[in-house]
Structure formats: structure tokens, C-alpha cells
């Protein structure tokens, strides 16, 4: 069994060091739009941050490809120790309502990737971080809905104050590194609509899918474990193609 992750300066240096030596994959936009997401590393308490009051109902789970045995739609109990912030999108959003996501969105004209990720973080969670809090970038990920996403990894501090925007965010969760590095994760499923495997990230009693799953898998492989495996070819489930 691997040693437990401990939140602090040593972890911050390890993440930043692994990210700094990575030869990052960049993807030409073509006719796609550019977006940035914030992958925010924080500390978490198993009890205080371990609830999930908005579990997916059974009808929302029906579209998940592959084996759904044991899925509850809840990620309760996945906090404790170093973690990343994960949001459940508000139900009234036009696109991908209710789905798991990282804070982020489209990059404005003339705006840089780092500024865009930090702006989206402020707008969605009321969390302001400095450019000095940036640990590095992960590979670009092209989505089925016409975006190229650039993930920005940030050090959020142990317990940052947040005020989620209810127009965009239904709930905010802290998913522990322990959960992201489960032995049964990630898993891959074949679908008839694509020759690429759908990536699934087991978290609690639910499954996170790409693009969020692809980003979090590379966070584990690269930032935590020092592996430079690519994730851009990991497929999204059909329900996320729109």
C-alpha cells in the first residue's frame, strides 16, 4: 500500500516539480473554442467535507456506459487529506446541467489561460487565487462539443473560503487524492459510437467521465506519480458529446 498523501509544502513542491518537467501536449484550435479549467488542490476533512446532498437519481444513471453495479450517484465519504475541488453543475444550466465539472469556461478575447482559469474560479466559487498559486499546466484536451480545454493546476491552500455562485454551481466537493488513486481507477469502456475507450473515474458511488475524468487521471499520473502518459484520446460518453 502506498504512503498516505500529506497536505503541505512537500506535496506542493512535488506537484510543481512533476508539472515543470512535463513536455505538455498542445492542440491546435482550428475552428474550436479555447477554454480553461482550474484544478485546485486543497486540504479536506473526512467528516466536514464528506457529504453529498445531491446524489444523482436512478434515471440519470441510466445513460452511463458499462457496468453500473453498485453505483449510487453519490460521492459522499470521499474527502479526507489532500484533495481537489469538484463541482456539480447547477440544474438550470443549458449545457451539461447537473454533471460533474471543474471550475472553468471559455477564454475571453485577449485573455491568457492563467487569467481565465482564475477568473472562472472567482466567478463560480468566489475563490481568488494569485498567479503565484499556479503549480503548472496539464495537457490540452479536445472535447466533442467543440472546445480545447487547458487545465491549470493551482494550490488553493488548506481551507480556502468559498461562496459558490448558485446560478452555476449546485454543490462543491473535495475529492481526496486517496480516492483519485484507487486501485480500480481509472477504468475504460468500449462503446459502439467510437473506436476510442471511454474513461471512467470511480469516485465514491459514482463515475466521473471525460473531460473532467481525463484531467483528473492526468493529475494523478503526472503531478502525483510522475508519469507522462497522454489522455487526449480518452473518449467521452455519448451523453457528454453535446
| Number of helical elements | 5
Main beta sheet, described? Answer: 8 strands, mixed
**SS class:** alpha+beta
Proportion of residues in helical segments: 10-25%
Q: Could you characterize the architecture of this molecule?
A:
By secondary structure, this protein is α+β, with helices and mostly antiparallel strands. It contains five helices and eleven strands, in the order αβαβββαββββαβββα. Strands 1, 2, 3, 4, 5, 6, 7 and 8 form an eight-stranded mixed sheet that branches. It has a three-stranded antiparallel sheet with strand order 9-10-11, covered by helices on one side. The model has no long low-confidence stretch (mean pLDDT 93).
Short description:
By secondary structure, the chain is an alpha+beta fold. The protein has helices spanning 9-20, 58-61, 113-125, 177-180, 212-224; strands at residues 33-42, 83-89, 100-101, 104-106, 134-137, 141-142, 147-157, 169-176, 187-189, 198-203, 206-209. Strands 1, 2, 3, 4, 5, 6, 7 and 8 form an 8-stranded mixed beta sheet that branches. A 3-stranded antiparallel beta sheet has the order 9-10-11, covered by helices on one side.
Provide keyphrases for this structure:
25% strand; 3-stranded antiparallel β-sheet; 5 helices; alpha+beta; 11 strands; single chain; 242 residues; globular
